[in-house]
């Protein structure tokens, strides 16, 4: 008889397969409605997600009214719903139709960086559609390596990994990332790393993020210093006017070799972009969970 965890894994996997099939083949308007409905139900059954988002907004943007914060939280779930629809359709996307969903802005920054021959480190975040950005870049410019943390459900992890690699991208597990990332950069490849999650004290440094101390992973800055790779912030941001994403590559951020200073520069830039698109960042993550010694918890 399967254990409770095995049964749960199977149920989650089956539900995901059914939902992905529905989102992939329904008309786009219907798929977006279904995804929004599913995210609404998730928020109802897991109320801590909304609570975390509201708390984060109180901490980061205290100048906003409760109504403004509520609109941002609703926007976060709409953003996740759009992302789910696109993710379900990744197997049907190719070079011929990818422009229906995304276009480049600032591609010249990547071209110049690649011409240096020391690799490119994309400073990515849970902002906009981080899954589509890597997938589309592989189709439009060439495969890249992406650093990911495996999902707790191994069945879902294999499914998601298959989707992520359909356009030729290579997966680097987070636990063994350093050596593989350096190898890719030495081969003048591009590597994408999400930099915006809370880090444990032994893995990170404290930086100012939205006016509060946040523990940020230090590995990205160390890899940049060791490799000499060009660091480019890049995010796939939704455009209401175009009804598609814009994959923006920003000018490179110079690395000094000072891990704390460089990590701060990255997060200061990320904060500036999130402020422009607050409803597209993952506020449901407890970003300020790790506190400096002696400070009380914020959640």
SSE topology:
Elements: H1 4-25, H2 28-45, H3 48-60, H4 66-88, E1 102-105, H5 107-115, E2 120-124, H6 130-140, E3 145-148, H7 154-164, E4 170-173, H8 177-186, E5 190-194, E6 204-209, E7 212-217, H9 219-227, E8 230-239, E9 244-249, H10 259-276
Parallel strand pairs: 1-9, 2-5, 2-8, 3-4, 3-5
Antiparallel strand pairs: 6-7, 8-9
Helix pairs in contact: 1-2, 1-4, 1-7, 2-4, 8-9, 9-10
What does this entry show, briefly?
This protein is α/β, with parallel strands linked by helices and 299 residues long. It contains ten helices and nine strands.
Specify the biggest β-sheet. Answer: 7 strands, mixed
* Overall outline: globular
Number of strands: 9
Biggest β-sheet: strands ordered side by side in the sheet: 1-9-8-2-5-3-4
Q: Would you identify the regions where 5 or more consecutive residues have pLDDT less than 50?
A: none
Q: Structural class, from secondary structure content?
A: alpha/beta
State the order of secondary-structure elements, H for helix, E for strand. HHHHEHEHEHEHEEEHEEH
Number of helices: 10
Average pLDDT rating: 96
What would you report as the Rg, rounded to the nearest angstrom? Answer: 19 Å
The first-to-last residue Cα distance is 39 Å
% residues in beta strands: 15-25%
- Tell me the helix content: 40-55%
